[in-house]
Amino acid sequence: MEKTFTQSELEAITQALGHTSDGLTGSEIGHILASLKMADPTPAMTKWKRLHNAFVERQNYSGNRRAILQFIREALKPERYAREAQRFEPMRANLNRALAFVGIAVETDGTLVEAEQVKTLGEAHRRAQELRADLTAREVHPDVLIFCREELVADNYFHAVLEATKSVADKLRARTGLTDDGGLLVDKALAGDIPMLAINSLKTESEWSEQRGFANLVKGIFGMFRNPTAHAARIHWLMEKKDAEDLLSVVSLIHRRIDIAHMPGRA
Questions:
Q1: Where does a domain end: 94, 114, 134?
Q2: Which of 72, 151, 173, 260 has a 20 to 30 A CA-CA distance from 107?
């Protein structure tokens, strides 16, 4: 028997998609419904109720939730928000809070993946609070603590680590003015005969070894979480809290070293 959404699950999903300020517009809803050939029985109703009625009618007709999942995929395609990028993450966060109860999550690239199922309203909040408390006890960098948020741990600790890793790249770009990403960004910012950012005085071979090791550490973290070839693996990566805490501690170390890095003079 194919899976279907319950009434309460449909309400949560459609309220997220049709959120007054962070959801789809009425015209967007109409366009996606039409493109998927889904009936729109109550177009004059409020956005979430309009979607709810459309989803209920389609699910009752088909006996499965496939069309609804396809609607979500269409609605969360990142390219839809190329001109309004600020809309994407709030909508994804709202939707992931609803989908967490059915063990599904929307990734940053708009794909749907399996996720650890949340069973209570307070579970996502508890996870975020526990993660923040443990990391605070470790005295991790403040730029890491900001990723201990409900929407990032509701489905999987992986997303908190992923976003924290992205923040390292953001800081490197801010410090250097570079626009690259991943290993290329690290090579330009931290490697070479005269790196753009040095974590020590670079006066001895030991200090040069430390600099090269740090660059390799950052590049390794990027390769683990930012390399496109690794994205498929994360679908089944249900990261445990202890692993997330260890990785976030490494990211904290990287942030601290970048903060105190200096730009060596160039001849």
A1: 114
A2: 173
Q: In terms of residue numbers, what domain contains 14?
A: 7-114
Contact at 8 Å (CB) between 38 and 53?
Answer: no
- Measured CA to CA, the distance from residue 28 to residue 7 in angstroms comes to 23
> Which tokens in the block code for residue 198?
């040095």
| Backbone φ, ψ for residue 208 (5° rounding) | -65, -35
93 and 157 assigned to the same domain: no
5 contacts: CB under 8 Å, gap ≥ 6: 13, 55, 59, 65, 68, 102
**Residues 6 or more apart whose Cβ sits within 8 Å of residue 261:** 175, 197, 198, 199
- Condensed to tens digits (0 to 9), the pLDDT of residues 111-141 reads 998 877 877 767 777 777 788 888 888 899 9
Query: Any idea which residue has 């809290």 for tokens?
Result: 241
Are both 29 and 135 inside the same structural domain? no
Identify any residues that bridge with 113 across adjacent strands, giving them in sequence order. 105
42 within some domain? yes
Domain count, the chain: 2
| Burial class, 235, CB count within 10 angstroms (exposed 0-12 / middle 13-18 / buried 19+) | middle
Chain segment 75-103, per-residue pLDDT in tens: 999 999 988 888 888 888 889 888 888 88
Token pair of 203, please? 């006066």
Tokens of 215: 């660059």
